[in-house]
Specification:
TIM Barrel; eight-stranded mixed barrel
Length: about 240
């Protein structure tokens, strides 16, 4: 990994691909501020941009997937703080196969790597994929382990019908809600916002792609939002709102 004193954007390499991080802001619609950023990996080969699935090919052994996933999360943190410490949250995804293949001490390797770089885990949010296939005991251990090492937790709701069960099992800091699954049903959106608040979580509406979608989030009482209508993913984290109407 190239990290010239953490000054400037960082890069890494895996399986012949160059890796860079891209970030998309999470916006607080009420305060009109940026409160965090989601990070994704952008792989390149021979100057051609690839899709993330090219990095996480299903045919790769579990060990390779785990190494690639950990490398990407370290790259995201280094890139995010490349120009100095940020007070905003960094949301980093965890690949489902890491959750399945690593059975103990989740978060320890990542925290140790962050410590070695002088980066704090306190404002890093681990974004878990849909955990519905995990047993409650396994899920509780996994989340407890990440929290023990200083990380916050976000979970992505796949089906609206599982909302209350997901909140009860995970108690996340952030609940990520794909706006598309609500099909404009602002009453259901408002119910999700209230349910998250009762569980001590904040709802984040993702996939806000139009002025109409943004209006729906506001009508439902949503505070946090993310999507292409608000800003585009970029190599450098956005510090200010790009478009709010």
């Amino acid at each position: 990994m190239s990290m010239p004193g953490l000054a400037g954007h960082t890069e890494s390499e895996f399986a012949g691909m160059r890796l860079k991080s891209v970030f998309q802001a999470v916006h607080d619609l009420h305060a009109q501020t940026v409160v965090g950023h989601s990070a994704w990996v952008r792989p390149w080969r021979d100057g051609v941009a690839l899709a993330p699935p090219d990095l996480f090919e299903p045919t790769r052994p579990d060990g390779d997937i785990v190494r690639a996933d950990r490398l990407c999360r370290l790259l995201h943190a280094a890139s995010y703080h490349a120009e100095g410490p940020r007070a905003t949250r960094l949301l980093v995804p965890v690949h489902p196969r890491l959750l399945e293949s690593v059975t103990a001490d989740h978060g320890r390797a990542y925290r140790d790597a962050l410590d070695a770089l002088g980066l704090a885990a306190a404002r890093v949010v681990i974004c878990l994929p849909d955990p519905s296939h995990l047993r409650t005991m396994s899920l509780g251990y996994l989340i407890g382990s990440y929290r023990l090492h200083g990380f916050e937790i976000a979970v992505r709701l796949r089906e609206a019908a599982t909302l209350h069960d997901l909140l009860a099992r995970t108690r996340p800091t952030l609940l990520l809600l794909d706006l598309r699954q609500y099909a404009g049903n602002t009453a259901a959106m408002a119910a999700a916002v209230k349910a998250a608040a009762r569980a001590g979580s904040q709802a984040v509406f993702t996939k806000v792609e139009s002025a109409e979608a943004l209006a729906q989030v506001r009508a439902a009482g949503g505070t946090l939002a993310q999507g292409y209508y608000l800003d585009q993913p970029a190599d450098r984290p956005a510090d200010a709102l790009v478009q709010l109407v």
